[in-house]
Each structure stands twice: as C-alpha cells, then as structure tokens.
Design a protein that fits this description.
This protein is an alpha/beta fold. It contains 9 helices and 15 strands. The structure holds 6-O-phosphono-beta-D-fructofuranose.
Length: 359
C-alpha cells in the first residue's frame, strides 16, 4: 500500500519562520511514515500539471535560520480571494476544480496552507469545494483574527527595534527628529511593539488617527525638558484625523501603502523648525533570520498542522491561545482583522512611559 501523502504551500507575503513551519511539517510527517509534497509559489503550484517537489528530511537541513520560504510564495495569481481590507472575491470555480483534480491525481490527502488572512480566505473556499485544508497563520503584521499571535511578527519587531536603537544614537548626536516608517497597513502592532521596545517617543498607528499639532507639541515638550532629539515610529497605514492614508500608484496598476513617513517628517519640520529625517524600513522587516520565538512558534505550528490532518480536523486553522497551540475553524480567521485596541493595556503602558500617539 502506498504511503499517505500530504501537501504544504506557503502563500502571501513571506516572513521569517516559514521554513521552520515547513521543517516541522516534514519531520512530523516523516515520523508518521507520510510523504510530503511542497507546492511551489503558493497556490499557483496547484495548477495543472502541479508544480511541486517532494520534501524529505534532507531538504530541511539547515533551513531553520533561513528567511523566506524554500518553496516560494506569491501574493498574486489565480487564487487571490481578498482584494483589500474586508473586500473578498471568489476564486474562479474552474481554478478550484483544476486544483482539486491535481491533488486527486497526486493522491494528496490533506493540504497545509501557510498564509495570512487572504490565504485563509482562499483556504476556506478550497475547503468548501471539498479540498481537505489545514491553515497555519502567518503574517508579520500580526493582524490575523482567531490567533493571539502569528509567527513572523516577533522577527519583524526585532528588526524595528534594532533600527530604532541605531536611529537613537544618530538622532541624539545631531539633535534631530528621526521618523521611522514601518509596515502595518491596517494594524499598528509592529509600530506599537517595535516602538515600545525601541524607546520611541511618538508612535502613530492606523487605529489612532493623529493630529500634527499634537505631535509638534510632544516634540516641544521634550525640548522644554532639554531633549532636543525625538524618535517617531509611523505605521504605513497611519493617517491624520480627517486625513487620508498615503498610497503610491505603481506601474503594475495597483495602489500600495507607503509614504506617510516622509509626509510626517515634512509636517514636523514645518511645525517645529527642527531638522527631520525619514527612514523607511520596508521589506527588511520581512527578510532575514527568524528570532527564537518565531523558530519555536513555526515548529510548533508545523507539527500541529500535521496532527490536525491525522485527526482529520479539516477546515481548521492552527491557533495560538494562552501559550498553547490549538485549533479554530479557518472561517473564524477570515473577513475581519485583529486590530490594536486603542484603549488596550499596551497602548496605556506606552502612554504611561510618556509615549505620545499624536492624539
Ligand atoms: O502583509 C504584510 C505586508 O508586509 C504589509 O504590511 C505590506 O504593506 C505588504 O505586506 C507589502 O507586500 P508586498 O510588497 O509583498 O506586496
């Protein structure tokens, strides 16, 4: 009799820790005597005739510290089920039918989908169409519902913290205002955690619209106490009260977030007369080696996904709750985002250590 066979794919924007998940899946599956097929470049690998490679213990050697994903990913293509915050689109029936056929021909009993909310929306559609799916939550933005944490987030925050540590020294030397733009289109988790860990003085997040006068006042208050430099962290999706988010129109025809850092720096300079500089951290937050936490979380998530297949809990997503790795219906994670509660404990703690949110 042939061995049971499962599939794994990574989808959406990459992040540190994806390879830890893949390694966890492959090693846990091998222990059960199962074969693993890694579908290449996200869901696109499911298209006929199937673009995949067999993954065994040997393929996992040395991948734990590696950023990115050894099986590739994309946030474009035929399986996009999310076109914006809260806006869903249906994956074409023919595309799903083709993928189902490929999985059937390859005798894949269960498919592990590692991705963010868009990928989970696709996973749900595949599951509804009779494909056995298990979701694994991933995103540096940490904005996925139904899990207290996604892997990739901790590594992104570590990169922000490191950048802030560096900006502090140059800011103090020159008595400048340094603005750091970080990722986070709808949720300010990266800005909030990175800002608190990196000793920022002002943190601007999408959930708390800001006022330029309040930011200038916070900088002036520091100056009155003799602190002539200041560090501002701004999430790419932050916006002024009564203002708009800053988007760039790209050649590919889509509008992308980004640019608020420069705008904020300009407004601060105009209002305070202080020398101001802007750094955009961009995809540095998505690359590089995962932190300890993301390696462990990724491993736990990968192993749990295999267990869920063994238990035939299809339609479930691995979820982190109260320090335990559990599972929830994939449906719980789609159609809404987990945002920073503006009156939550961490925002309050930040305020208590004199961090301004510009509100
Ligand atoms: O979802 C993660 C994220 O890093 C966002 O914060 C960011 O806006 C986006 O991905 C960028 O994605 P890409 O450049 O890969 O299209």
């Amino acid at each position: 009799m042939s061995k049971p066979r499962i599939g794994v794919l990574t989808s959406g924007g990459d992040c540190p820790g994806l390879n830890a998940v893949i390694r966890g899946v492959v090693l846990a599956a091998e222990k059960l005597g199962w074969e693993v097929l890694g579908f290449l470049d996200g869901f696109e690998g499911l298209l006929p005739p199937g673009n995949y490679k067999s993954l065994g213990r040997r393929d996992t050697a040395g991948i734990m510290p590696r950023g990115g994903t050894i099986i590739g990913t994309t946030n474009r293509g035929h399986f996009v089920a999310k076109v914006g915050a809260g806006e869903r689109t249906e994956v074409a029936e023919k595309v799903i039918a083709d993928a189902r056929e490929v999985l059937k021909t390859l005798r894949v009993d269960g498919l592990i989908i590692v991705g963010g909310d868009g990928s989970m929306a696709t996973a749900q559609q595949l599951q509804d169409a009779g494909i056995n799916c298990i979701g694994v939550p991933k995103t540096i933005d940490n904005d996925l519902e139904a899990t207290a944490m996604t892997f990739g987030f901790d590594s992104a925050v570590a990169t922000v913290m490191d950048a802030l540590d560096r900006l502090h020294t140059t800011a103090t030397s020159h008595k400048r205002i340094m603005v750091l733009e970080v990722m986070g289109r709808h949720a300010g988790w990266i800005a909030l955690h990175g800002g608190v860990a990196g000793g920022a003085h002002i943190i601007l997040i999408p959930e708390i619209p800001f006022d330029y006068e309040k930011i200038a006042a916070a900088i002036q208050a520091r100056a009155d106490r003799g602190n002539l430099s200041a560090i501002v962290v701004v999430a790419e999706g932050a916006k002024p009260r009564d203002g708009q988010v800053v988007m760039r129109h790209c050649d590919e025809g889509e509008d992308r977030y980004g640019g608020i850092g420069l705008v904020v720096a300009g407004e601060i300079a105009a209002r305070t007369g202080k020398e101001t500089r802007c750094t955009v951290l961009g995809h540095l937050q998505r690359g590089g080696t995962p932190t300890t936490l993301d390696r462990i979380l990724g491993t736990r998530f990968g192993v749990k996904a295999v267990k869920l297949i063994r238990e035939k809990k299809f339609g479930s997503m691995v979820s982190y709750q109260n320090y335990q790795v559990r599972h929830v219906p994939i449906a719980d994670a789609v159609n809404r985002l987990r945002l920073v509660p503006p009156d939550g404990e961490l925002v309050q703690t930040a305020r208590d250590v004199d961090i301004s949110f510009g509100d």
